[in-house]
Each structure stands twice: as structure tokens, then as C-alpha cells.
Amino acid sequence: MLERTRNKKHTEVTFVLPADHPAGEVSVVGDFNDWRPGTHALMPRPDGSRAVKVTLPVGQQVGFRYLAHGDYWFDEDDADSHDGRNSILHT
User: Fold this and answer.
1) How far apart are CA 23 and CA 81, in angstroms?
2) What share of the chain is helix, strand, coil (3-state, %, to 5)?
3) Would you tell me which of 10, 36, 40, 72 could form a disulfide with 68, CB atoms 3.0–4.6 Å apart?
4) pTM score, whole prediction
5) Eight-class DSSP state of 23
6) Which Gene3D superfamilies has this protein been placed in (predicted)?
7) Distance CA 81, CA 89 (A)
8) Rounded mean pLDDT of 73-90?
9) In whole angstroms, how far apart are CA 2 and each of 28, 71, 76?
10) Whole-angstrom Cα distance, residue 22 to residue 72?
């Protein structure tokens, strides 16, 4: 799930996953962090879900995916679109 807060200069995007899907460590990787695993690791929230917030410029198209333990890559179902390789987010 994606949570967004926009203003004139940037969009704060919170990437959210359920507590147990998938098990183990997960990070979000994409154009905004040069596809470096672990840079934006999802952390537990009080409700049991896991999340990480990323601030992005307004008016961008950003490709991203999740990377879980064991080299398991997966997409965001709630992304704005998919390009056949990545989830796409429009800020």
C-alpha cells in the first residue's frame, strides 16, 4: 500500500506492507535510491505493518520494487502503473 502527502515542492510517499508478507527484512529500491538494497528498509509500526517514508520531487515518474530476504523481488499492487519490469509511481 502507498500513503502519500503532497505539497508544492515534494511528495512524501510511505511504502507499507503487512507484518508477515513476506517474512524477514524488506527494503524498497528504485530510481530514488539508485536501486541500492537496504537504503530504505521497512520498519515495524505499532499496528504490526512495516513502512518506510521517502520524500520525492513533485512531477516525477519513479520506478521501484520491493526486495525481501533471499533475493525475492516483488511489485506494489497499488502502484500507479507497471512497465513490465517495475512498479511506477507518479509524484
Assistant:
1) 25
2) 5, 50, 45
3) 72
4) 0.92
5) S
6) Immunoglobulins
7) 7
8) 95
9) 12, 22, 8
10) 9
